[in-house]
Specification:
Layout lengths: L11 E7 L5 E6 L2 E6 L7 H17 L4 E5 L3 E6 L2 E6 L8 E5 L14 H9 L4 E5 L5 H14 L4 E5 L11 E4 L5 H11 L3 E4 L5 H12 L4 E6 L3 H6 L10 H4 L2 E6 L2 E13 L11 E8 L5 E8 L2 E6 L8 H14 L7 E6 L2 E7 H8 L4 H10 L2 E7 L13 E5 L2 E5 L6 E6 L2 E7 L5 E5 L3 H11 L4 E4 L1
Parallel strand pairs: 8-12, 8-13, 9-10, 9-11, 11-12, 19-20
Antiparallel strand pairs: 1-2, 1-7, 2-3, 4-5, 5-6, 6-7, 13-14, 14-15, 15-16, 16-17, 18-19, 21-22, 22-25, 23-24, 23-26
Helix pairs in contact: 4-5
């Protein structure tokens, strides 16, 4: 028996050894454990180094054990059922060792799985993601799933980093640490397994490999860390086109405290998002539903220039309008007025208050501007005048114009003053002067180019405030 094994009993999930501290162990099971002191003697460097040397020596002798990663200052070892992580200075401030041993190896029958969920696992074992927090039991469930597929006569293989799933001899376990993504990609496509379990997806290359395998038509189940089911999907947004997500990921199984928590399914539809009522606002929407209750939980769609994930259940207390209206409307109206204020009137309507002088140009001739804004944002907008008694009478302000680097400078001699800039009678924008009493405009911007052109052609530039 290794010296390390003496720290374990039937209740120990992991052992944590570090020079200068007492040995500690996590005891219990996923979702219910405590950190307990294992000895009353502080670990010194010589003793911990002996434990490390013994593990590496025995691993090299045992044909079923292997060193998964070996670097100058860290080593990851799979010794029989123990996954051992060794970290040395200067990566850590002292020599430390963490060893993890699975306490149980469960069959799928041991889980309380609803009939709808079991049917989806067995009949549609593609595009599944198993997620959960650290130590929630994700990998244990993935192992049970792999064994179930193998028992049903399917060729099942795993892709791990490191290899630590407890599986039978009829399941091949590939290590991502010893092969490139291209090599693994070729192996899987040429060997064509019925099911692939991709354990511990972490970085963008992992996600890209999962996406490639799925789009190639293979059945693949991914395992990754996430704090909630919806966070699982968030980790795919930005790594691929949003419209392709349901083709790659169609089922999320969230594990909590060693049990199946929520199971969400994804589907792409074309419809008017929840909270909007105009038929011409229909767009592609990814619906996320609870598999068991079929209750609509979230929607993903484009809103303005953003891709948003919106909860639509009553329990959430949020609607698309309440969640995004103020931010999106203020952003859009900032192009016309710096003094806009937003009042949410309902799930699909807002009122925007702007200075009286800005109202006409925002609405536009025959309402063309405000109609375009409503269509872009997908909501109804009332425009009302904002009473601003402090700025009712705008007067021309003297200024000195100059150029500095890439900027046009208008010095009005007053700090923190809100002013409007005009070319002749054409309003350009509203701004607030700096501490030096300056209003800066980038010469390369559209406004800067317009001002330079006006100066060159002899047009009058007015500042009012």
């Amino acid at each position: 028996m290794l010296a390390l094994e003496k720290f374990f009993d039937e209740h120990t999930m992991s052992v944590h050894l570090r020079v200068g501290t007492y040995p500690y162990g996590k005891k219990g099971h996923p979702g219910e454990w405590s950190l307990e002191k294992l000895e009353e003697e502080i670990m010194d460097n010589a003793r911990l180094q002996e434990i490390v040397d013994e593990i590496i020596e025995k691993t090299e002798e045992d044909e079923r054990s292997f060193i998964e990663i070996s670097r100058a200052n860290s080593t990851i070892v799979q010794y029989k059922d123990y996954r051992v992580v060794i970290v040395r200075p200067p990566v850590s401030d002292a020599l430390e060792l963490t060893a993890v041993k699975p306490l149980v190896k469960l069959d799928l029958d041991k889980y309380d799985i609803p009939e709808k969920v079991m049917e989806r696992i067995k009949e549609r074992s593609s595009g599944i993601i198993i997620s959960g927090e650290v130590g929630s039991g994700k990998s244990t469930f993935a192992s049970a799933l792999a064994e179930e597929y193998a028992k049903s006569g399917r060729v099942t293989k795993t892709l791990e980093s490191p290899r630590d799933l407890m599986l039978g001899d009829d399941i091949t376990q590939y290590s991502k640490n010893f092969g490139t993504s291209e090599e693994i990609h070729d192996i899987l496509f040429l060997s064509r397994p019925d099911n692939v379990i991709f354990d511990e997806m972490r970085d963008s290359p992992d996600f890209q490999l999962y996406i490639d395998i799925r789009l190639g038509g293979s059945s693949v189940i991914g395992v990754l860390h996430a704090a909630s089911p919806i966070d699982t999907i968030q980790r795919f947004i930005g790594r691929m086109e949003v419209g392709m997500i349901p083709s790659v990921l169609d089922t999320i199984i969230f594990i909590k405290d060693g049990k199946i928590g929520k199971v969400f399914v994804l589907k792409m539809v074309v419809k008017v998002p929840s909270g909007m009522i105009e038929a011409d606002l229909a767009r592609p929407v990814i619906e996320i539903r609870d598999l068991v209750s079929q209750k609509l939980m979230f929607e993903i769609y484009s809103y303005g220039e953003e891709t948003v994930v919106i909860p639509v259940t009553k329990e959430s207390g949020k609607t698309p309008m309440k969640a995004l209206a103020e931010k999106q409307v203020l952003s859009e109206f900032g192009r016309y007025s710096k003094s806009a204020e937003v009042e949410v009137l309902g799930e699909h309507k807002v009122r925007v208050y702007v200075p009286k002088r800005d109202k006409a140009k925002i609405i536009g001739t025959k309402g063309v501007n405000i109609t375009a804004i409503e269509k872009k944002l997908g909501i109804k907008i009332d425009v009302a005048a904002l009473e601003d008694t402090s700025r009712k009478e705008l007067k021309r302000i003297g200024y000195q114009a100059s150029e500095r680097g890439t900027s046009l400078i208008f010095n009005i001699g007053a700090a923190g003053k809100m002013v409007d800039l005009f070319i002749e009678d054409e309003f350009l924008f509203t701004s607030t002067s700096s501490k030096k009493g300056e209003v800066k405009v980038n010469k390369k911007s559209e406004l800067g180019a317009k001002l330079l052109s006006a100066m060159d052609s002899g047009k009058k530039i007015y500042i009012k405030g």
